[in-house]
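Human: We require from you a protein record containing the residue sequence and its fold in token form, and nothing else.

Assistant:
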Amino acid sequence: MLLLAVDTATPAVTVALHDGTAVVAESSQVDARRHGELLLPAVDRVLAEAGLKLDAVTDLVVGVGPGPYTGLRVGLVTAATFGSVLGVPVHGLCTLDGLAYAAGIEGPFAVATDARRKEVYWARYDDFRTRAGEPGVDRPADIADELSGLPVVGAGALLYPESFPEARGPEYQSAGALAALAAEKLAEGSAFLPPTPLYLRRPDAQVPKNYKVVTPK
């Protein structure tokens, strides 16, 4: 087994290779505006570090979000393209689940990432492997009481300490953690999400309401 994991749902452009036992190479760069520019060089870098070629990959793992529209699609399209070219399966995982796994917290906690517009993408967890419900998107103040007393992991929590006083790292996604979680799920025969985007809300960029389509006569 050789898993190639990618995630671009947060400002981190993160890639990892996992051999079914451990992470063999990983690259992460934080830049919210350069997902498309950074992802493929990161894939080349981890393959070179591991001394492998892309055709050695047996499975692809991709973070499906939730995350901002443009950045999220970079990872999903890249994974789908690789999967098609190599003829290997593409497995989707919730990005928040990767952050939860990296946190390694045994008791109840939550994960929150920055959703912009003064909101966070978030979910509750019973432990670092078990999500307690579906992800949501809300203003921090609106969920502060619900998450009161719980550790809250991620950049979204660290941005709003007044709502999440128990905020802590890791701040961004790690493809290494995502790959390790995927390896466990594959070994157990557990189900994955489809490799399609989990948006939770409309894209930031929208066509103006009064936009007129002009066609030649």
Remarks:
- The helical segments are 35-50, 69-86, 95-103, 140-143, 155-159, 175-188.
